């Protein structure tokens, strides 16, 4: 019969999901935006020091991260002291969320946005996606995204609080940005390989996350080795900071892997379908989605 010879994509085009599916999707997005707004409010409150005056360890926790590298507690590394707020003992969950949101706003979102912007510029310039130049440009997108985002955030904190050492923060941003270069470059290399062998969406997410984690960790160790002689804010490689570097690498590897969900070639995730890049998406929206995918 003629109906039996119709190509399969026409069946997909005729199919319309029930309205309750759309309602559930809208409810899920509304819940996510509400939680994101709440965590953002907590992060701003914690980071910009709109606090009731306190004393003791809580007061230490609210000091500027840039100026308390010598007063870290619980054996925290100098990198952690320079990049996040020290957690308050009596409110671990909120402080963990505040720290995560601060890192997301100042480094992870700009890194993903910079990566996506570099991808757009490289594609418009006609650079082949399987070339080393293309992969390197994506790495530089990550690199500049981290540095610009970190310095803008710390600059805002300096305006509000006035006790931020921007020269020290630039050294920290250089360390993190240099490591992010390796993870951004490795993302495209890994995706090209996994696409060629036909790996699915979630398998690609996991595999790319592992590759980017290893790449970021390697970048951290290399940047420490090369920057520590000329930058006082960067510690030399040691057993103490290797543990913090591993934890940070896992977090950044997962963030970088989030860009997999923007790849329309792999199909949409039922949970993050709104991140999938369509051909009709404008460059600005594409850049914003790149940052959002990394942040999530």
TrEMBL record:
Entry keywords, A to Z: Membrane, Transmembrane, Transmembrane helix
Transmembrane segments: 26-44, 131-153, 200-223, 244-265, 271-293
Protein name: Uncharacterized protein
Originating organism: Guillardia theta (Cryptophyte)
